[in-house]
S-formylglutathione hydrolase (Sphingomonas sabuli), 556 residues
Amino acid sequence: MKVVAENRAHGGRQLVVEHQSSATGTPMRFAIFLPPQAEGGGKLPVVWYLSGLTCTHANVTEKGEYRAACAEHGLILVAPDTSPRGDGVPNDEAYDFGQGAGFYVDATEAPWAEHFRMWTYVTEELPALVAAEYPADMERQAITGHSMGGHGALTVALRHPNRFRSVSAFAPIVAPGQVPWGEKALGGYLGGDRAAWRRHDAVALIEDGARVGELLVDVGTADDFLDTELKPELLERACAEAGIALTLRRQPGYDHSYYFISTFMADHLRWHAERLAR
Amino acid sequence: MKVVAENRAHGGRQLVVEHQSSATGTPMRFAIFLPPQAEGGGKLPVVWYLSGLTCTHANVTEKGEYRAACAEHGLILVAPDTSPRGDGVPNDEAYDFGQGAGFYVDATEAPWAEHFRMWTYVTEELPALVAAEYPADMERQAITGHSMGGHGALTVALRHPNRFRSVSAFAPIVAPGQVPWGEKALGGYLGGDRAAWRRHDAVALIEDGARVGELLVDVGTADDFLDTELKPELLERACAEAGIALTLRRQPGYDHSYYFISTFMADHLRWHAERLAR
């Protein structure tokens, strides 16, 4: 494990760490912000942020505007990469498949199955590493993410109902089995059997009985992907039928970019902090 | 004038605008944030942010974390580019001269004199354009900047003592005539006569009688350029002798990056807002 960048920021430390991943069989990088309270010697709550298509750890680290709120509330924030990368890793020319588009699944199809194991990476390997190396209180975890990473946050939380105190998402893909991005990715990584997709589809998981207590989701009304890829109304309907307390906010005029995310980041982190403090 | 990007952010609008500059003879881009209060029809105070070496308008726009504070205080923020650019514009292979390194002077030396007229651009042309096109209250202006842009902010303010209500800087080059970056740039753009450099050197301007009421300056103690290029102690001495109320804060552990700038951005904007409200 190697710290490849360290910068003092908002009274804490913003690190970028590289390590050899057993899940992906490649070097992986993640960003971790340790707020000023980490100097105190105690353990701190940790927020996982899963990024969207084309992103690395760097997008949210540079543009997410999360550090001020993390410093205020004493939160560690961890931002993994979105796929394995490198010359020996298969890729696809499209922006929405292959490197930068791991979709938080363990691929079963060739040639992806060997390295594209982001589910295991974000649910097992990286949490264990963070717990071992940093003052993260694993009894107080929250998860969020954007777009493909919102899909990741929702599915990871639904399948680990006792792990997270709180779950939110920015412009998530809520039903990948019903939209082009998701059909392409799940079909490519998991094969044509749509039954296997349901464990990586938040709406399907809720239909099949998975539960979380509550959800906070923001979407922008000017998001170009709202009606074709995100379809928050499908989550709204599934949560209503399942009795999940969904707070879905349609933010007027906002798009799919980090200008949208950074606008509501502090609000999400405050919401998580309230639940992590209980 | 053409809006090349527009994103809703923090309740306002983040624009990137391109226009044909008469000062530089090239197309120029700048970023302007219009806070939510701009919808109200009145005029708002404006903060100028001048960027450092290698930057465009985009660095602070993406990494500066200024929009939340601008929205809170009702401030317009304008971030120009750091030089003319393009195929017909002379350049230098070094990062600290030529395109991306205009140093906020009007060059007098060949081949720079034709296009490298950033002094006229940031002190005359761009303010006139912003005043004409946006609800900017030109009676309530503030200026700040980073590194080379801190140099720009200080020299522009010292030579326009009645234009700005407040002046601050992040890690500024305070005495370019005494440090390598400045000697190279001022020598290259203005020629070997060091007397001509003094009007583009904050410490020299103060020594020669220029005054502002007060200054807020942050530097990081882990800034690699602190002792060689920034030398805040020279500004400290000049201000002490001139009776200028300098607040110079040496921030422990911070470097020269946008992690430093974004940490103290909200504090600078609050400080400016207090003075712009008077």
